[in-house]
Amino acid sequence: MLLRWVPAHRGYEGNEKADSLAKKGSKNIDSNAVSLPIPKVIGNSALRRRTTRKTETSWNKLPPSHTKRMWRNKFTKEIPKLNRGNLRRATQFLTGHAALNYHLNKYKPDKISPTCPHCLAEEETVGHFMGQCPKWSAQRSALFDSFYLSASDIVDNFTLTEILHYINDTRRLADDHSRT
Length: 180
Ligand SMILES: [Zn+2]
What we know:
Elements: H1 14-35, H2 44-50, H3 57-61, H4 66-70, H5 84-95, H6 101-107, H7 126-132, H8 137-144, H9 151-157, H10 160-170
The chain binds zinc ion.
Zinc ion binds at residues 116, 118-119, 121, 128, 133, 135.
C-alpha cells in the first residue's frame, strides 16, 4: 500500500514532486510506525527529576476528560502516518477505552476482574498499564528511561510513535491480527 499523505503546509508544488516523495516515502513512512530505532529521548533529565511524582489518581480513574488531557498537538502530525494496527492502539491509549481489564470489566463484570493480571496489585487501567505496572518496568526503562511514570510525563515528553513503541513492545494491546 502506498501512503500518499503529504502535509500541505510543507508547500510541495505539483503532483510530480508529491508523487516522487510518495514513492520515496512509501519505503519510509509505512515502516516508520513500527520499526524505528529507539529514538533519542527528549528531555531525559527533566523526566528523571519528575519520575518520583506519584501517578495522578485522576488519570487512573479515567474521567470523561481523559482524551482531552492525553491529547497533545504534536500528535497531529503523527496520526496520518500510523498504520491501521497502530492507529487502533493509539486510539485506545488516547481515549482510555483500552482492551485492559479495568475497561473489559465494564462490559463483562461477571467474567473479567478489573485487577491487573500481571501484578494483581491494582486495577489495570490505562494509567497502570502505561506507567505503573511492574511487569513492564523493563520496557519503560528502555523506551522512557524510567521505571515508573505519570500520564502527563509520558504525553509531555514522548511522541506518539515512542508511546506506540512501548505499547507494541508489551504486546498487551495486541488484540488483533494486524500488528504490521
Ligand atoms: Zn499490573
